Every structure is written in C-alpha cells, then in structure tokens.
Amino acid sequence: NLDLQSELRELIPEYQERVKKLKTDYGKVELGNITVDMVLGGMRGMTALLWLGSAVDPEEGIRFRGMTIPDCQKLLPGVKPGGEPLPEAILWLLLTGKIPSKEQVDSLSQELQTRATVPDYVFKAIDALPVSAHPMTQFTTGVMALQVQSEFQKQHQSGLAKARYWEPTYEDSMNLIARLPAVAAYVYRRIFKDGKIIPRDESLDYGGNYAHMLGFDDPQMLEFMRLYITIHSDHEGGNVSSHTAHLVSTPLADPYLAFAAALNGLAGPLHGLANQEVLRWIRSVVAEFGTPHISTEELKEYIHKTLNSGQVVPGYGHGVLRKTDPRYTCQREFALKHLPDDPYFQLVSKLKEVVPPILLQLGKVKNPWPNVDAHSGVLLNYYGLTEENYYTVLFGVSRSIGVGPQLIWDRALGLPLERPKSITLEKLEAIC
Ligand code: NMX
Ligand code: MLT
C-alpha cells in the first residue's frame, strides 16, 4: 500500500486479535509488584501502560518498533541515500511497525502537505497573546485553536460507533502532525523575526519544510532537523508528555485536546524545557568565565556552584536511562562530522567528562550521564537558531509523531479510560 491509512486498516484486525488473546488467556499474569517506593517515587519502574511505538531499555536506550537509532539511520529512507531518516519514515514505522519504502514515504509526505493548511483564526488566537509570552504558551494556544476542526469531536457527537473511533482519530492525528510546523514556525517568526512569515515550500519534506519556514535553508540544518524530529518523536509511553496525551485521550478527548495537555507537561523544566535550560546554563558558564574555553577546574567549580544553590545540572540524569542517552550520542556524531571545531560543541564534550563524576559523588543521582537535551542546543545554536526559549517547541512538534500513532491505536484497540487507584497517607501507614 502506498497509502498509510489503507496499510493501517489491514493491520488493525490482527492487533485486535492479539490484544483479545492476551486479555482472555493471560489476563492474570503478573508483571511485577507495586511497592511503597513506587507510589511515593513517581511510579518509577512500575510497568503499567501499553505503548506500541517504542521501548526504552535502561542500558541501551530507545528502540523504535525494535529498531535502534543507528538502525533507523541505516534503514529508513532519507532525502538521499545515506542521509538522515525522514520524519515521515519514522511516523510510518511507529504506526505500522513496518519499514516504509521511499515511495511510501513520498506518498505520506504528499498526504501531510494536503493536510497542512492552518485556519486563520489559529494565528489570530496566538496574536491575542503578548509577544513576550513563552513560545510554548503561544504554541499550545495554537494547538487548542486547531481543535476547532476536530473530526473526532464532530463525528462522536453525531453518534459514531465505537468500532470506527480510530478513523476520525486518524484524521485528527494526521491533520495535527501536518499543521504543527506552520503553527510552530509562526510562533518563532512572530516572536523573533518581527512577524515576517515564510510560506511553506511544497517541494520540501516535513522536516526540511519546517526548517525552511523557520528561516533556515542550509542543507546541513535541514538534515539536522530531520534527525532531530526523528530522535525526539517517541520515548515509550511513560514519559510525562506521552503519558499525558494517552491519559487525556482515554475519556475520548480528541487528539488536539490530548496533545495540548501533553505539551503543557513538556513545558516543565525537568522534561522538555530542559533543552532550553541547558543552553541557558551553558551561556551562563561562558558569561562567568568570559570564554567557552574553560579549564576543567573552573568547570567543576561552576557545577558545584549550581548544585550548591539547590539547582539541577540540566541535561543530565533520566527517569529510566542508566547510561548515556543514544539520542545524545547520535547528535554528538552529527556534530563531530559537521562542526568539530565549534567552541560550544567542545564545551559540551568537556562537560560529559566533568559532570558525571560530580553527580556520582552526590550519592543520590541514579543516572549521572547526559540525556538528549544536553546536546541539541549547541547544534541548533551553531546553525543560527540561537533563541533557546524556542527549543521546546521543536521538541513538541517532534513528539506529535510519536503520540499521534499511539492515540490512533488506543482507539483501534478500544483501550479503556485510565483510572488507577490512589491511596491515602493514613492507609499507606496502616498497611506498612
Ligand atoms: N543534577 C542534580 N541533581 C540531580 C540530577 C541532576 N542532573 N538528576 C537527578 N538529580 C537528583 C534529583 O533531583 C533527586 O534529588 P532529591 O532526592 O534531592 O530530590 C535525586 O538526584 C534522585 O533523582 P533520580 O532518581 O536520579 O532522578 P529522577 O528519576 O527523579 O529524575 C530527571 C529524572 C531527568 C528529572 C532528573 O535527572 C533531572 O532533574 N535532570 C535534570 C533535568 C533534565 O535534564 N531533564 C531532561 C530529561 C529528559 N527530557 O527531555 O525529558
Ligand atoms: C523523553 O524523551 O520523553 C524524555 O527522555 C523523558 C523520559 O523518557 O522520561
């Protein structure tokens, strides 16, 4: 099939059967025990969610439908052979579990183009906010305004049967993914480029066109944008943004409502906003010493200063990972290839040596290694996207490509309303 929806339609009965079999034959199989630590510790280590697109291994990191990042770089189609994977390709993979051909990816690119027009009232809703509002606030406002065109909400109100819920969810998810770059680029140009908007270039792919609408046409930046979107798309289901999207969608809130909620979680500094915080922190180090060429001793001193003031070192640590994030590693490889002499890149490389031993000394940090956010900022900065307050919007656009497919599967598999049980402090004490 060249058409993604037809491909999916063929897969759904098979997946429904698999889930039905698990429920009827294996419903009582245990996946682990729930401990007091889990209840008090943000549910770390508690397996409690079905997520089809990807899984994170603590040691190895992300696999998208079983594929590592190097696998994706090797096997997913790019603009040219050997180029970075196209975001359309990871979208196809996450939704279907199959590696798409170049023709399938091109057809999906076309499909997204035909869905990409954003109604004018979306821009007007954003314009109602002060230009000084944070880019994530403006972006999420745009997503809420896109919701006006929700097919799911319309069809559900007209009495759509449950078996067909996935169809308007597909429409909404694909329209959302297709329209986000224009909304996100509008926010960037409104805040940082005097509102001078750049129209989309229909000859370009999803990632290339987003970079173009932001104002960047350097082919290397376009390649980085494709890689960036691909690696930020999905990180299994338990991270704050993905989990939020799933949770909010389970009472049948449509994909726009669910994704806007996800973005609000992504805007937290311990989650997606960390990419902004990393560059801010790096700039503060450079400002302190007046140069990016900083000695190891000086760096150590600055890290201790950050920790002693009760702050975290942004870009380090993770809720699941216990080794360097492979998303960090692939960005490092990209930087080594294209910008090895950039002083900010060299500073980031040095931090990777200096930060982990200091975090380990604290004795409480479970993962002292760098995560995805430790690296993205210096690459964006190198290509001219210097306004770090915008970085989380890029993460948000990318995350729609992981969240959208799961929302479609949630409805196709008829997954129920999420409603875990909570416990009072008194009850917990009594049990203990
Ligand atoms: N700098 C200083 N302290 C840290 C760091 C860090 N980078 N990472 C963890 N800790 C502390 C943490 O604050 C906690 O302290 P306390 O008990 O006093 O509250 C202690 O170490 C134990 O935390 P962990 O169990 O290691 O980490 P947890 O799973 O709770 O949190 C993060 C994971 C990612 C929230 C945490 O590592 C962190 O705050 N990192 C810095 C922010 C960041 O880079 N976030 C981006 C994550 C990736 N993403 O894009 O979402
Ligand atoms: C993510 O990409 O969502 C982050 O690495 C956070 C997480 O996985 O918990």
How is this fold's topology laid out?
Layout: H1 4-26, H2 36-40, E1 54-57, E2 61-64, H3 69-75, H4 87-96, H5 102-114, H6 120-127, H7 135-146, H8 151-157, H9 166-192, H10 206-214, H11 219-232, H12 240-249, H13 255-266, H14 274-289, H15 296-308, H16 326-338, H17 343-362, H18 373-382, H19 391-412, H20 425-431
Antiparallel strand pairs: 1-2
Helix pairs in contact: 4-19, 6-7, 7-9, 7-13, 8-9, 9-10, 9-19, 10-11, 11-16, 11-19, 12-13, 12-19, 13-19, 14-18, 15-17, 16-18
D-malate binds next to loops.
Characterize the structure shown.
This protein has 432 residues and is mostly helical. It has a domain at 112-270 and 392-412: Citrate Synthase, domain 1, CATH 1.10.580.10. Helices cover 60% and strands 2% of the residues. It contains 20 helices and two strands. The chain has helices at 4-26, 36-40, 69-75, 87-96, 102-114, 120-127, 135-146, 151-157, 166-192, 206-214, 219-232, 240-249, 255-266, 274-289, 296-308, 326-338, 343-362, 373-382, 391-412, 425-431, and strands at residues 54-57, 61-64. α6 (120-127) runs antiparallel to α7 (135-146), α11 packs antiparallel against α16 (326-338) and α15 packs across α17. The termini are far apart. The mean pLDDT is 98. Residues 235, 239, 271, 319-320, 371-372 line the site of D-malate (MLT). D-malate is lined by residues 235, 239, 271, 319-320, 371-372. Belongs to the citrate synthase family. Pfam families: Citrate_synt (PF00285). Keywords: Transferase. It comes from Quillaja saponaria.
